[in-house]
Amino acid sequence: MVTPNPYALNIDGKGFHPGTREEAEKLLREALPRTRAIAVGAMQVSLRWNGGEVSDPTDLLDLRTNVRTATKVFCGFQKQGGDMALLIGRYHTPNPELVSVARAYGEDVLRVWRRLVLLKQEGEQG
């Protein structure tokens, strides 16, 4: 079974999957002085674009805070309009000059989601 890691970090394009919050906090605090290109937690909240939604970036290692923050950001994109692929893509690539990149990413996510739904349905039937 695939499950999200509430402590997952992407720092400058490199993925980290710490097993504990303490490990994740250490990695995050070490990275913060040198970069804001960090995505935090299960929903990969971008510190560059959305870090201001929390008072301390380590708060995003709490699963509820992470999901709540991501939901707030995603809902903000809904106000801009667009289909689901573009909305998902904007969450990953919010730069308005990179709409084609955002859409491609969103389409990839939806493709994976559809595959997972089909696998689940097949498992329930068999």
Textual characterization of the structure:
The protein has 126 residues and is α+β, with helices and mostly antiparallel strands. The chain has helices spanning 21-31, 47-50, 63-78, 84-92, 99-125; strands spanning 9-11, 14-16, 38-40, 45-46. The protein has five helices and four strands. It has a four-stranded antiparallel β-sheet. Helix 3 (63-78) crosses helix 4 (84-92). The protein is globular. This is Lytic transglycosylase domain-containing protein.
Key descriptive features of the protein:
126 residues, alpha+beta, four-stranded antiparallel β-sheet, 4 strands
Briefly say what this structure is:
This is Lytic transglycosylase domain-containing protein. InterPro entries: Lysozyme-like_dom_sf (IPR023346). With 126 residues, the protein is an alpha+beta fold.
Secondary structure blueprint with pairings:
Elements: E1 9-11, E2 14-16, H1 21-31, E3 38-40, E4 45-46, H2 47-50, H3 63-78, H4 84-92, H5 99-125
Antiparallel strand pairs: 1-2, 1-3, 3-4
Protein name: Lytic transglycosylase domain-containing protein
Organism: Pseudomonas flavocrustae
